[in-house]
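Try this one yourself first.
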């Protein structure tokens, strides 16, 4: 009986040791990931504020319950697309209207450079007007951006022209009430700029950096944007930022940094 007990205990120990060895090997395989990195450096870039506005006639809505008027205008245009450009004057003197916070208002001045996107094309613009009266419902301020309309120089308008209708369809021009992505440039700033595609979030923004062949989480704060780049706080010059292969990482994972002449498995 005693010998049987010794045999059973021995077998159990062998199985346990074997299991631990397999787990360690599996853990090593799982935790070693192949990644690509860049060494961060400071750079000077234009910083900008990003907004979503809409195309509108250049009128001041601030004193007419602008929030409600804006929503009504957009709703009418979307429900009656055939009426959006029925008036020839509606094709002229248009602006992109955005709403900004009091904090952002203090960063913006008339004639500041801006740009917006139309059919994925980046178009230069500028700040035309900044309201001094906040919206009573949202406490935001109305800002007008220049909209460059190719039809501004036309002297005649034939609403029955089929050619014009076909041209409008083909060019897919913006209509009154359409939403527009716009950026206002507020100056230049030197710092750590990284691609917005490399920023992850679990409620807080963070990135992965490499140190001693392991990936570590670094929490960051986004300070500003410049096109597809973000100016961030929390990273330093010389940090090794993971730019590829971070999708399945966890804090502390062992990583293999891919060299420029190597290919991913």
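Now uncover the answer:
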């Amino acid at each position: 009986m005693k010998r049987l007990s010794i045999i059973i205990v021995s077998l159990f120990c062998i199985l346990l040791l074997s299991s631990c060895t397999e787990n360690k090997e599996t853990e090593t395989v799982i935790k070693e990931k192949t990644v690509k990195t860049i060494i961060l450096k400071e750079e000077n870039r234009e910083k900008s504020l990003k907004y979503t506005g809409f195309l509108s006639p250049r009128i001041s809505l601030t004193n007419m319950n602008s929030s409600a008027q804006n929503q009504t205008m957009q709703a009418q245009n979307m429900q009656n697309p055939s009426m959006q450009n029925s008036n020839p004057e509606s094709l002229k003197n248009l602006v992109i209207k955005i709403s900004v916070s009091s904090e952002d208002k203090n960063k913006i001045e008339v004639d500041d450079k801006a740009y917006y996107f139309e059919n994925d094309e980046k178009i230069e613009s500028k700040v035309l007007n900044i309201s001094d009266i906040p919206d009573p419902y949202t406490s935001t301020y109305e800002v007008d951006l220049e909209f460059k309309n190719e039809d501004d120089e036309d002297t005649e308008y034939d609403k029955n022209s089929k050619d014009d209708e076909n041209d409008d369809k083909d060019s897919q021009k913006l209509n009154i009430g359409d939403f527009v992505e716009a950026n206002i440039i507020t100056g230049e700033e030197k710092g750590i700029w990284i691609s917005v595609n490399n920023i992850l979030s679990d409620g807080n923004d963070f990135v992965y950096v490499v140190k001693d062949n392991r990936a570590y989480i670094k929490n960051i704060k986004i300070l500003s944007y410049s096109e597809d780049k973000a100016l961030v706080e929390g990273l330093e010059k010389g940090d090794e930022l993971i730019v590829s292969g971070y999708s399945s990482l966890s804090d502390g994972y062992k990583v293999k940094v891919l060299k420029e002449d190597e290919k991913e498995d």
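Discussion: Residues 46-186 form a domain with the Elongation Factor Tu (Ef-tu); domain 3 fold (CATH 2.40.30.170). The first helix runs from residue 2 to 31.
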